[in-house]
Amino acid sequence: MQSYYKFNHVQCAKTGIYRLRMPQPHHIPSIVNSKYPCSTPPYTARYLTHNKQSVSDTRPASCKTDDHYANIGRNSANYEPSVWGDFFATYAPPNLEPKERLEQMIKEQKEEVRDMLRSTTNAVELMNLVDTIQRLGIDVFYKFKDSNGSFDVKLCEDARGLLSLYNAGYLAFPEEAILDEAISFARCHLKSKANDLIPPLKKQVLRAFKTPLHRMLPRIEAMYHIQEYEEEETRNNKLLKLAKMDYNLVQRLHLEELKHLSLWYRELNLSENLRYARDRLVELFFWSLAGYFEPHYSRARIMYTKYGVVATVVDDTFDIYATYEECKLLNDAFQGWDEKAIDCLPMYLKNLYLAAINTVHGLGDELQPSEKYRIPYYIKETQILVEGYMQEIEWHAKRQAPTYDKRKIPAIDGNIGSVLLCPLLGMGEDVTEEALRWLSTFPDIVMAPMEICRYTDDAISYEREMNAGQGPTTIVCYMMEHNLTKNEAAAKFESLADESWKKLNRACLRPTNVPKEVLNRFVNMARVCTPEYLFGLSHGSTIKELIGMLFLKPFSI
């Protein structure tokens, strides 16, 4: 079993409550001291309730009491409760094939598939051709044009060829007009044929219209493709069986991780004590799965989800609940990264601050000795994240409308730590200190997915953030600067996101010392920044069906 299951249970002498103890790294300032004898990570409000008097007694005289904060009017975003609750903490899949037996079956099936590929020259040639087309990029598309420079009308007769052309067009670099033409040409003719197509090709075309293959999450595409491949008359049953078994085995691992995270989240107890915030553990795990779906990145998924849970609550605290004074206190606490900073925080922020710092410390414990140098990156990026939130609060408090560029930069910088850097730190040997230093210079491979996420999220969260009384969002700043309507600005942001995708495509193929496996994470994280998935973080019910399909529906073999 993976090391993240190995925790020690300790009992608090005062309360009798058992908690999970994670030893603090010796070179990180410990947040736990004699003032909080039972505050083993995660720090929960149950202990604060038992010891409320002792906590308030330690406040400096200059700090305000909790009574001061009790009657303050608060905003609310009215987030819906989690649609999953504690479900995955106790869920056990029915009628499972023993894991060892399934692994052996996969091993045997792989050998059969290898033998098949060795003996089928055409299959090998086909795979080589696909690989060559991906590497050739722009040049290959001239082969689809006629003598007049237009796309050959003969292509219109082949729906599968049109679909391939359409999907390939989204591999474009900046200023590659020929690929934009390819997309328009293929889409136009596929639309005219859509009603006459039969499954599974019709399903594939309609899905590509919504999300092109290059921008599709690999795990979701695999799920759909297995379903559709089974409908193909020319399917290879050996390949189909192998794909199903492999999918089911990986799904089982993901369920084990969800159970572990659900138990950790229950102990953290943030959703009970900070009810104004989004309760989105399962949705955040889905996001981690989007970027790091491969089995060997289990640790990265666990670490990303834990960090994401805390970052989401901190975000909601700044955005909708805390007063300006409380935001300043919380930001100062994070910038100091010191246990003494809790003394002046109101009770609910004590709980949040300690949970956040203990979670970051706990993530450090997941790292191997040779990886401990990564811990300061967690701390620094957390501070950058919170500082970005505070900047937005300052603008709102001063009734300032910053320029679009000024508003965009902290929004993007703040996302770097929580969306990209955190899971990278859990990847393993692929991520070197040299790679982290290079990535921290914000090359296109880093900036492009952040821009994609920013443009897309702003376009869909405009109404929610304005209704919650937040300051001017990025899209509002853009509307004011360019005298545009909301719809015009949203269309422009969609266009800007497409341009950022082209920058990302180019960055992935630029020579670099950073391993391809690391670069692929940035592409995957861009893929999850769609309106559907971003909206699902605030409204979990919108992606409930998709999550249920991913985790609760294994394929029959």
TrEMBL record:
<dbReference type="InterPro" id="IPR044814">
    <property type="entry name" value="Terpene_cyclase_plant_C1"/>
</dbReference>
<dbReference type="InterPro" id="IPR001906">
    <property type="entry name" value="Terpene_synth_N"/>
</dbReference>
<feature type="domain" description="Terpene synthase metal-binding">
    <location>
        <begin position="266"/>
        <end position="503"/>
    </location>
</feature>
<dbReference type="Pfam" id="PF03936">
    <property type="entry name" value="Terpene_synth_C"/>
</dbReference>
<protein>
    <recommendedName>
        <fullName>Terpene synthase</fullName>
    </recommendedName>
</protein>
<dbReference type="InterPro" id="IPR008930">
    <property type="entry name" value="Terpenoid_cyclase/PrenylTrfase"/>
</dbReference>
<dbReference type="InterPro" id="IPR034741">
    <property type="entry name" value="Terpene_cyclase-like_1_C"/>
</dbReference>
<keyword id="KW-0479">Metal-binding</keyword>
<dbReference type="GO" id="GO:0000287">
    <property type="term" value="F:magnesium ion binding"/>
</dbReference>
<dbReference type="GO" id="GO:0010333">
    <property type="term" value="F:terpene synthase activity"/>
</dbReference>
<dbReference type="InterPro" id="IPR005630">
    <property type="entry name" value="Terpene_synthase_metal-bd"/>
</dbReference>
<dbReference type="GO" id="GO:0016102">
    <property type="term" value="P:diterpenoid biosynthetic process"/>
</dbReference>
<dbReference type="InterPro" id="IPR050148">
    <property type="entry name" value="Terpene_synthase-like"/>
</dbReference>
<feature type="domain" description="Terpene synthase N-terminal">
    <location>
        <begin position="139"/>
        <end position="208"/>
    </location>
</feature>
<dbReference type="InterPro" id="IPR036965">
    <property type="entry name" value="Terpene_synth_N_sf"/>
</dbReference>
<keyword id="KW-0456">Lyase</keyword>
<keyword id="KW-0460">Magnesium</keyword>
<dbReference type="Pfam" id="PF01397">
    <property type="entry name" value="Terpene_synth"/>
</dbReference>
<dbReference type="InterPro" id="IPR008949">
    <property type="entry name" value="Isoprenoid_synthase_dom_sf"/>
</dbReference>
